[in-house]
Queue: 4 jobs
Job 1
Amino acid sequence: MKRLIKTTALACAFLLPQLAQAALVTQWEYEVASEWTGATFQASGDGTTATSSSVLSWGATGGSYSSSPKNRSALVISNSPQSGTDLVTNSMMPVLTNVITHFNNILAGGTKSLETALLKTTLKLKPFLPTPDSALPTKTLNFTIRFIETPNDGSCGFDSASNCDDIFVIEVGDLVTSFNYNGAKYTTAVVETTSSLTGLSPAACAQAGAGAGCLGFKTIEQAATAAMFGLLINGVEVSAPAGTGVLGLGLLSLFMYGRRRSAK
C-alpha cells in the first residue's frame, strides 16, 4: 500500500505541471498581408479600368486618381504587409493590418465604374509569449466589397453629405474567425479603427446592392477617405482544470489497489 501511494504521488507530481501547461498565449508574432484578387466593373461605358494587387482604378484613359487632372477614381491598399510581435491576447489595442483609401474623383459620363471587389488577407500567427512555438497554419481571410459610383445629379435617394456620396460596403465574410490551440480557443477579429466604417442606412445599403444593416462608409466627391484596419485576438482556456486529471489518476490508483486486495 505504501509503495502504491508513493507511486501515485510521484505520478501526480509529474502530471500536474503537464496539465497546467495549457495556459493562454499572451503575445503573438504575426505576419499579415492584404491584396485585391478580383473585381467587376459596369459593362457599359468607354472608360478604362486597371487592377493590381494593391490598386483598383477606373475612369478616363491615361488619367490619374491622385494628381491633376484627377479624372480617375481608385481603391488603394497601403501599409501592407505588416509584421511584429506585439499582438496581445485579450487586448483592446489592435495591430495594424492595412489601410484602404477611396480616391473619389468626378468621372466623365459613360465611364465604367467599380461594382464589386475581392479582398484577400493572409494571416500567419506564431506563439511568442510566454513560450515561443512553431507557426500555426496560415489563415486566408476573404472579403467582398460592394461599391457604387453614384451619379452627381443631386437625386441620391439616400442621406448624403455631397452631390452625391459614393458608397463602399464590406460584407462581413471572415471578419471574425476562431481556432483552437493547446487547450484554448482563440478568436481573431478584423476591425476598422478610424470610425470610417459604420452601419449604413437601409437606403444607402440598397443603393449599393446590399441588405439592410450593411457595414461601410460613404465618400464625398473630390476627396480621399481612408479606412484603417487592425487585428485583435481574444482567447479563453477550454481544457479541463489540472486538478481533474490528478483526481482521475488518484481514483484509478485506488481502484487498482482495491482489485489487488480482492484478489488476495
Job 2
Amino acid sequence: MTTVHSPHATKPRADAEAGARAPRYAGSLIVLHWVIAFGIIGLLALGLYMVGLPKGLPLKASLITFHKSLGLTVFLLVLLRIMVRAVVGRPPLPPMRPWQRAAARTTQGLLYVAMVVMPLSGYLGSSFNTYGTRFWGILLPKWGWDDKALRSLFFGIHEAAAYVLIALIVLHVAGAIKHQLIDRDNLLARMLP
C-alpha cells in the first residue's frame, strides 16, 4: 500500500515543530504571567460585582478587604515579574510588520503601567479614609487623612484604570489569538507551560 503525501498534511506537524523550537519565555515568567493574569481577571470580576452591592452590607465589607489583600498580592507579583524580566530578558518577537510590533510593545507597556497604577491608586484611595487597608489581616500604614476629595480622586483613577485594563486585556488576548489562528506563527507557545 502506498501513501500519498499532501503538502498540506505536514503543515500542522511543521507548525508544531517550529513552535517547539521557537524561543520561549523563562519558566518563572510563564508561571508569573498566568498567576497574575488569573489574579487580575478575578480582581476585575470581584470589583465589578462589589460596586453593585448596597453600602453597609457586611458581605461587601468582607469582599472589599479580600479585594485589597488579593490586589496587593498581585501587585507584589507584578513587581517580581518586572524584576525577573529585567534579569532573564524575553525572547525576541517573531517577524512581523512594524505597526504590529509597535502595537504589541505599546499594549504590553500599557499593561504594565495599568498593573502598577491600579493597585497604587486603590491603596492611596484607602489611605484617605478612616478604614485604611488590611493586607491579609495586617493593617498597613495610611499615607493620608480622612479626605473625601482625595479619596474620590484616587478611587476615580482606580476605576478608570480598571476599564483601561479590561480593554488592554482584550487587545492582548485578541493579538495572541490572531497570531495563533491567522498568522500561525505559534507565538502563544512561548507563554504556555
Job 3
Amino acid sequence: MEVAEGDKARFSLKKLPMGYRFLPTDEELVVYYLINKAFYRPLPAEVIPDIREREFYSSPPSDLVMPFSGERQRFFFIHSDENFHGDLKRTTRIVGNGMGFWKLSGEGDPIYSPGDKNISAFKFQFTYFSGPPLAAKKTHWRMEEYRLPIDFYMKNDMKGEGLALGRIRRNKEYDCGF
C-alpha cells in the first residue's frame, strides 16, 4: 500500500495484516516506536500495548505472553509508577510477591542513531529467575528493555516519565510445542 508523503504522519495501522509478523530491529524499535511514543507522535502500527510498571512486575512472564499468542515474544510500552517500589537503575526487579525476579545481565548496550555516532537509546538485557532469591532457578525467559538516555529528556525539555519499551521472549532452546 502506497502512502502519500503528507499522509504518513497521520497513517497508523491498528493491527498488522494477516500473515505479517512484527520483527523490528533494535534501531527500528527506538526510532519509530520509543521516540515517537515519548513525543506523543503517531506510531507506524498500534501493535505494542501500554502497561504500568506495577502491573508489568506483578506477573511472571508466561502470564504476560502466553494468553495473547503462540508467538515467542511480546512487546510492551512500560510506564513507570511514581509510588512503585522500583528503581529503574536496579539490577534485580522482583516479580509479584517474590514469585520470581528479573536479573540484569551486564550493562546497557548503546543503540546509535541511523547515519551518525549519537546514542539514541540503551538496550538492557534481563533473565527471569523463578522462585525466591535464595532458591531461584534460571528460566528460559529473557527481556530486552530499551530506554532513552537521560539527556534526551533534558535536551528536549521533557520531564520524562520513565518510559521504556520492553520485549519479553522465550529462549530459542525452549520448545513448548508451538
Job 4
Amino acid sequence: MLFNSSVFVMGFLPAFLVGFALAGWRFGARAALGFLLLASLFFYAWWKPVFLPLLVGSIVGNYAIVQIMRTARRRKAWLVSGLAANLGLLGWFKYAGLFAATGAAVLGVRLPDLGIILPLGISFFTFQQVMFLVDSYRGEAPSCGFLDYACFVGFFAHLIAGPIVRPREIIPQFARHDGRVRQADLVAGIEIFLLGLAKKLVLADSLAKFADPGFRAAGAGHQLSLVEAWVALLAYGAQIYFDFSGYSDMAIGLARMVGIGFPLNFRSPYQARDISDFWRRWNITLSVFLRDYLYIPLGGNRRGEARRNANLMITMLLGGLWHGAAWSFMLWGGLHGVYLVVHHQWRRTGWRLSGAVVQAITLFAVLIAWVPFRAGTMRACWIMLRGLAGLGGVLLPAMIVRAMPVLRLVARPVAVLPWLGAARTMSVVQGSALLVLAWGIILLAPDIHSLRVRGRNAALVAGFAFTVQALFFAPFARPFIYFQF
C-alpha cells in the first residue's frame, strides 16, 4: 500500500485516524497503541500477507534477545547471536541472488532460479532492530514493554522506507503517549503530509517521464546523444530529490498526526557546501546510522589518515550495497567514498575555493554518481557516461535549432528526441519549463522543514495537491524510489 495511492489516502489513513482516536478516548493510551500496531501489521500484510510472520517473528525474537541480554552473564554472545540472525536474514533475502549470479558467471555455469522474493522494508526494520540490540548492549536503549517496542519497529509511517529512528528518540514517545489525537498535531501533520504528496505527484512523477526513457534506452544498449543523456540525468537527479523529499515529508506528517515526532531526514542536500555536507543533508538518519554503527566501530578517524580513508571507503561501499543487490549500487557507494576521501585530503592542503565553485563541483559529482545508481547495469552505466561526455554525438529538437541557427554548428537537428516522444503529454517547451522549475526550486528554495508550519495553510495545500492530482496524474500510483531498498 503506497502513501500516494488513493486506497491509502482515502481509505486506510482516515480509518486509522478514527480508530486510533476512538481507541484512545474509549479505552486509553495502551489501546490506542495496540490499534496502531494492528493497523501497521495490516498495512504491511496488504502487499504480501505471507511475509507478515517474518516481520512479527523478527520483532518478537529481537525483543526476547534483548530481555535475555539485559540479565545474562554472556551479554556479548547474545548480542553477536542477535546481529548474526538479523544480518543473516537480510543477507539471504537481499543478496543471495546477487552472489549466486556472480559465482555462476565466474564459474561459467547456469544459475538455477532461487525463487527469492525480497520482503518489503526488510532493510529498514532490520536496521531498526540492529540499533536496539547494540544500544541495549551499550546500556543506551530505554527499557520498554513489548507494545512500545513493537510500535517502534512496526509503525507503518516509517516501516517501509524510513526514517531509521533511534530507540531513545521514539520509544519514550510511545511510552508516554496518552492516546489522544490533538487538533494542532493533526492539522500540522496533514499539512506536511500533503506537501510531501504534492512533491511526489506533481514534480517527481512528472520528471520520471523524462528520466525513464533515457535510462531505459541505455539499458537496451542504445547510444545516447549529449542532450539526451543530460536531460535524462538532470530529470532523474530532480526526480529522486523530490521523490525522497516527498516521502520524508509524508512519513514525518503521518507520525505527527498522532503526536509522534520523527527526526529530520532531508534538508536541501543539493545546496550542500561540500560532499560531507551533502551526507549531513541527504537521508540523514541512514547517514547517522552508518556513522555510529559502522564507521566509528571500524575505528573512525582515531587511527590515522590511511585507516580513516579505508574506513570511509568500507562504510560507503557497504552503504551502497545496502541500497540494492547490484554491483552498480556498490559503484555508487564507492564513488561517494572516493569523493569523501578526496574532500578530506583537499582540506588537509589548506587550499580553498570559493563557496559557489565548491557547491557546483559537489552537485556535479553527486549527479554523476546517480548514473550507476539508476542505470541498473554496468553496461547501461557506461552508455550513459559516454552520452554525458558527448561521445554519442549532439542532437537537438529542430524547433530549438530554428530559433537559434548558430546551434547548427555543433548540433544535428531532429524532429523529436526519443525522450520527448516518450513523454507524450508535454511539448519541448513544457518539458524544458518543468526542468527549469524543478531545478530552480532545488537550488533556490528552502526545504519545507526550514519553514514554520502553519495549520491555516492546510486547506490551501490540500486543494492544490488534489486538484493537480485529478487533472494531471497517471491512473496508477508510482512507487517511491526508496521502497525498492
